[in-house]
User: Fold these one by one.
Assistant:
Number 1:
Amino acid sequence: MLDIQDLSISFHKQPVLQHISFHLDGHECIYIHGINGSGKSTLFKLICDIIKPTSGTITKKNDLQIGALIENPGFLENETLAYNLQFLASLKNQYDSSYIESLCQQFQLDLHSSMKLKNFSVGMRQKAGIIQAIMENQELILLDEPTRGLDQTSIHTFCQLINQLHDKGHTIVIAAHDYLPDIHYTHIYRLEEGQLFLDEMD
C-alpha cells in the first residue's frame, strides 16, 4: 500500500526527518508519538504530496485513496458544515449522504445547521475535520492530533469509530501526543530527533 525508503527533509538547512523508512501492507492501525516539532505533521504532508522530500522515495499503490486531517482543518469559513462536506466529497464524486449524516450524529453535529464554519468552536471544527477524512471510504486515513479540543464523550466516540474502521479493513495512522488506550493499535512508533523507531507494545 505504502512504502517509504530513506526519506529525509530539511527546512532552511535544518534537518526535520532523517532517513525514514516505513512500510504499510494494509489493514494496520498505527500510533506515532513524538514531541512538538518532531516531524509528525511533516511526515503526513510528505505522504499526501503537499511537500516534497529532500531525498528518499515514497511509493504508493495505484489509485490509493487517502483521507487526512493535518494540523488545523481548513474549510470554507462562510459556508455551512453541509456545504463544506458536500463540496469536498463532490471533488471525487463520492458523497454518501446517509453515511455523512450518521457520522455527524455520532459526533453530535447538526449537518443541517445554518451556522457558518467561522462560528464553530475548536472541538466542532475538529469533529468536522475527522469526518471529512473518513467520509469517502478512504483506504488510508492519516489523523494528526485528532482529539484536539474534543471532550471525553467525543474522544470515546472517536476511539469506537477508529476501531470500527480498522475492523472493516481501513489502514489508519494516528500521530498524537495523547495515547488512546481504547484504540486497538497494531504498531506503535516514536519520532525522535528526526528518526522513526518501532516501540515495543505491552
Number 2:
Amino acid sequence: MSSPIRVQKKQPPEPSSPISSLPEEIFVDIVARVPRCYYPTLSQVSRRFRSLVASPELYERRSFLGVTEQCIYVAISKDQTSDIHWFTLCRKPSREQPSPGATDNRLVHISSLPPMPLQGSYVAVGSSIFVMGGYQNWQIQSSVSLIDCRSHTAQPLADMPKAVAGSVTEVIDGKIYVIGGSDTLSPMKSPSRSMMVFDTQTETWDLRARPDWEQGKKWLSSVAMGGKIYMRSYYNSFVYDLDEDNCERDEVLHSKEWSNSCVVEDVMYYYDFRGKCLRAYDPKQRSWGVVKGLDGLLPEACKWSTTASYNGGKLALFLQRTEIWCAEIAVERRQGGEIWGRVEWCDVVLGGNFHIMDCVAVTL
C-alpha cells in the first residue's frame, strides 16, 4: 500500500508596500533617514528590510547624509567570573510619553557575537569596539578583537605585545593607550609596568616603558579629557599629559572616590551611590560639584553604577540593584556655573543575576 502523498503548503507571499517597490537607491536613501530605534521593527516587515538594516551600504548612506547617532553597548557578565556577553541599549519608539513605571527601553543580547574575555579593556572608535586582553578559561590573554557594530561581527587583530587584564584604556587622536593592568592570573597582584599604544589607522602596537608613577599599583578607573588621561588608583589620582609626557598627582581629583565615569563637554561625571548624587569634576576649575535637579528621580539602594556619554550633552547612567536600571540624563551648565540635570527617562532595562562590567558609546 502506497504512503499518502503530503502536499506542501505554499508560503504566503510577503505583503508588499509602496516603499518596497521603489528602486534600490531611493529605498536605501529613505531607510537611512529613519532613526535606528525603528530598525528592529523594520526588520520584521520583509526580507528586503531585514537584509538592508544589517548591511554596510545602509550605514555608508547614513554617514553620507550626516544621519548618525550614538548607541550604548554594554559588556555584561553573569556573575563577574564568567565570560563577557555584549548587549545594546534598545530604545523602544513610543508615540506617547511613558508612565514612570513603564519599561520602554531594554538591554538586548547580541547573540551573533562570541563570548569575550573577562576583565578586558573596551574602547569605541567610530562604529567599532576594540576588546583587548583579559582572562579567558583562566588564562591571561594578549588577544585583540574588533567588533563591527554595524554588522555585529567580530574579527581578530594583531595581539598586544604583552598579555594583561584590567588595564585602564583610553583613546586619543586615533591611538589607544593601554596602561598597567595585571599580568598574572591574580587580578589584584603584579600590575604590569608597561604602557602599550595601538595605532588604529596602521593597526600596529608600540610598547613603551611606563613612567615612574604609581608603579606596582592597580588602576581602578580612567577618562580622557582635553588630550589628557585622568587615572585613579586606591591611593592617588593622576593626570597624564601626553604632549609633555608628564604625569602629576591631583589631590583635588582624588578627594572623591570617582570610578566608572564619563565625560560630557570636558566635564567628568560619576554617580556617588553612597552620597546618592551625580557628581561633576571640572578640570579647568579643578573643583567638584553636585548635579542639581535630580533629587528623588533616581532609584535608591544601588550597589554599583557606571556611566556613558552619548547623543551630545546626555549621559546614560546604569544602576545595579536586584535588577539593572538605566536613566538618560541631559546635563547643562547654567548661569553661575551650576550644573543641572534632567531625567529624560528611567527604566529597568535588564532583570536577573547580571553584572555590568563596562559600557561604551558607539557612533552609527
Number 3:
Amino acid sequence: MNENELPSADGASTPGLATPGLTTPDVASATPGVASSMRAVVLPGPVAAADLRVSLVPVPEPPAGWVRIKVEAFGLNRSEYHLRAGLATGAVFPIIPGIEATGRVDLAPGGEFAVGQQVVAMMGGMGRTYDGGYAEYTVVPASSVIPVETTLDWATLGALPEMLQTAHGSLYTGLDIQPGQSLLIRGGTSSVGAAAAVLAKERGLTVFSTTRNPDRLETLRSLGVDHPLVDDGNISGQVRAVLRSGVDAALELVGTNTLPDTLRATRVHGTVCFTGMLSDTWTIPDFYPIGYLPNGVRLTAYGGESSDLPPEAFQHYVDLVAAGRLPIRIDRVFPLDEIAAAHHLMETGGAIGKLVVRID
C-alpha cells in the first residue's frame, strides 16, 4: 500500500503473531543489553489527533524470519490518518501505527541482516495487522526490510522509504513511464506528488503538476515541474491548451472526485494511474465504464508493496538525494512527543512535502 492508500489493511495478518509487545504486556524483552520497555504511540481504537499519546510498552521479541529495528525516524503517511480517524477496515486494535520505519537492525534471529546494519522497512502489514513504526523499536518480517548505506541524516532518510516506493511504483509499475513522455500529477504538492515529479524529471519526462494554492506554484517549479497548474477543477482544459492531444500519462493522487477530469486530460491510448485519495474520496458510485472512461484512455491503479522497490533502485535514489541531485521536500521534523501536532498538520493538509518524526 502507499501513503494515500485505500483505508484497508495493507497486508494479511500473520498466523500466531498479532501486535507484538501489546498482546503480552507482562513479557519483557529477553535480549541482554536492551531495555525492557520502550516509548511508543498506541492506538486503542479510532481517536482524534489531539488524543495521541506516547506510552511505555514492552520491547518486542522477533520470531524467526522477523527483524527487530531500533527506529531512528519515520515518515507520516495519509493511511495512518485513515487508521486513526476510524476510516480503515481490517485493522487490529490496540495497535502501534506506522507503515514505515528507518533505523538499524537490533536483532535478526534468522541472520537475514547484520546487527547494526542500516535499513528501512515498510508495509507488509506494518501498523495495521501488527505493530508498526511509531516506536523506539519495531519488529517486522525480513521481507519488508531494505538495506541501505548512506551518510544522510536520519530525518532525511526517514522521509524516503514509503514516499519513494509509492512514487516509483506508480510511475514504473502503474504507468510504465518512458523518456520523452508527458506526465500530469494531480496533487503535486503532496509528498508523493513532489517525489513523483522529481523521479519523472530524472527519467526525462515533461511534467505537469497541480496545486489548489497559487502560492505553491513556485514550490512546484523548484521541483523541476515544467508546467505548474492551479487546480480550478478544469485541469484537462489547461493541459490541452499546452498539449492539444493530452498527456501520455497521469498520476491521480487527489481521489475519484477529480479522476474524470484527469482522464479527460489524457490522450487516446494514454494511461491514468489511480494511487491516492488526498480528498478521502476513493469509490465511484454506479460506475459505468463506457460513460465514465473517455474512448481509448486506460485506467489502472497502484497499491504496491515494498518488493516493488528493488533495493538497488532505493539505494540509487538515496545516493541521488545525498549528492543533491534528487531534491526531496521535508516540510517539518517532529519529536515523538509531538505526534499529536504532527498528525493534526497532516490531517489538515497544511504540509508541503513530507512530515517526519525523529526518535530522540
Number 4:
Amino acid sequence: MPEYRNPKPTVDCIIELSGERIVLIRRANPPVGWALPGGFVDEGEPLDKAAIREAKEETGLDVTLEEQFFTYSDPKRDPRQHTLSTVFIAKATGEPVGADDAAEAKTFSVDALPKDLCFDHGTILSDYLTYKRTGKRRKL
C-alpha cells in the first residue's frame, strides 16, 4: 500500500480590533517569531470552527468570523511540512492574552507590524492590507 503524503490543512485568523489594530502571537515553538493566530484543523472539524477554536486557544479572544479571505498553498510556506492555510478575517473585542502554544499575544497597528513574521504571514498581511485599502484581492 503506498504512503500518501498529502498537505495538512491549517487555518489562520486575522483578528481585527478597534483602532485599526490586529492581533499577532509570538510563537513558543519553532519556528519562533510573530504569527497570525492559527493552527491545524482537527479531523472532523470544519474550517470555520477550527479558526474560532485556534483564536480562542492562542489569544483568549472570542472572535466573530467576518469572511474567508484566501487559501495559501505554497509548499514552502511552512518549513516543517507542506500545509494549506485557509485565512479568515475576524472581529473581536478585548485584549489578547497568549496561551496554548503562543508565548505572547499582542495587538499591533496595521502600520507598525513586526518584521520577524513566521511562515508566509508577511505575504498574507500584505495581501490583507492591500484588500482593506483597495478592495482588491490576491489573484490566483
